[in-house]
Amino acid sequence: MRLTKFGHSCVRFDTGEGAIVMDPGVFSDPAALDGADAVFITHQHPDHCNDPELRRLLEDRPEVRVYGPSSLSEVLGNLPFTTVSAGDAVPAAGTEVKVFGEEHALIHADIPVVPNVGYLVDGVFHPGDAFTVPDAPVRLLLAPIAAPWLKIGEAVDFIRCVDAPVVHPIHDAVLSDAGTAIVDRMLSNLIGDRYERLDNGRTVDV
Question: What is the pTM for the complete model shown?
Answer without folding.
Answer: 0.97
